Amino acid sequence: MDDELNSKLKPLRERIDAIDAQLIALLNQRAAVALEVGEVKKHYNAPVFRPERELQVIARLQDMSDGPLGNDHISAIWREIMAASRSLEKTITTAYLGPVGTYSEEAMHAYFGQTIEGLPCPSIDEVFRSVEAGAAEFGVVPVENSAEGAVSRTLDLFLEMQLAIGGEIALPIQHNLMTQSGTLKGVTRVCAHPHALAQCQHWLTANAPQLERQAVASNAEAARMAAADSSVAAIAGERAAAHYGLQIANALIQDDPHNRTRFVIIGKQLAGVTGHDQTSMIVSVKNEPGAVYKLLEPLARHGVSMTRFESRPARVGTWEYYFYIDFEGHRDDPAVAAALDDLGKKAAYLKILGSYPRLR
């Protein structure tokens, strides 16, 4: 049986080895050209990372492919190829909500690739401050969750800080219950970020009602605590389990199997037009009848489709709000530019957070 199997596999493996030899030669050729591109960018002081260009490359390759690789496979492969090429030009530092093992770190790698220098921060505030101060070129922050809604602190910081949104990524949130032993024997409490505890409350009530629930700063911090104390279970992702040496006692315990968190990429760099873009802004209006309708009317009149509308108290005056709005198109698109011009004349306050490639 083994001899017959090996005889059938041998020629196929030899073909794969030959293709791999071609691939490594071509990848090195590509990297050499990327270095030449880097020298041209350096001469003109152009940014190393251009998200709109990278997404255009991936979209073009997806259109060219006849399979069996799917679009997700192509995206994952080419993100890493381009990330490796970028790292030959310059090491890019990206701040994220830490410590190591958080979903924010996972989102960072999903967007930038593995060859990125991560800067873990203890809070979302510190992610913004690190980018503002130049300690990191970019930051990755959660902006909304499909189950819990908007991340209020991120929205507030967009109002305070002068940073632009340059990209976005949605990450499936897969919560796992983990311990030192991989069982709940001797475990008395479960620790996690408050959002994670809320997203798993029905499972915990049905399957581990005896565990005390303790909210901590992040799921990765919960994993660190569980690694140091056998009486603690943590709710976190697989990356945290691997980093802290924990065993998964129960996998995929989130109540909503479609739970996702949307993250945005913040920085000082503005993204160019791709033809598949989104713009985010903050506006406020005078407290008068019909004010919100009058505010949004220019978007409808110019054919601009709104994709998200969120309100936050202005914390000044009485019953006054800031509105966080996402809509399709780039601020440089003629229809969007015309709508923003009209909208700016009606708004009491208007801040464009950025135009960037939107999720496909």
Unreliable stretches covering 5 or more consecutive residues: none
CATH superfamily of the largest domain: Periplasmic binding protein-like II
Structurally, the number of domains stands at 4
- The appropriate CATH architecture of the largest domain is 3-Layer(aba) Sandwich
Instruction: Indicate the CATH class of the largest domain.
Output: Alpha Beta
Structural class, from secondary structure content?
Answer: alpha/beta
- What shape does the CA trace take? globular
Beta-strand percent range:
25-35%
Percent range for helical residues?
Answer: 40-55%
What is the overall pLDDT average?
A: 91
Cα distance spanning the termini? 46 Å
Number of strands: 15
- Main sheet characteristics: 6 strands, mixed
- CATH domain fold name of the largest domain: D-Maltodextrin-Binding Protein, domain 2
Radius of gyration based on Cα positions: 24 Å
Pathway: Metabolic intermediate biosynthesis; prephenate biosynthesis; prephenate from chorismate: step 1/1; Amino-acid biosynthesis; L-phenylalanine biosynthesis; phenylpyruvate from prephenate: step 1/1
Keywords: Amino-acid biosynthesis, Aromatic amino acid biosynthesis, Cytoplasm, Isomerase, Lyase, Multifunctional enzyme, Phenylalanine biosynthesis
Domain ACT: 280-357
Subcellular location: Cytoplasm
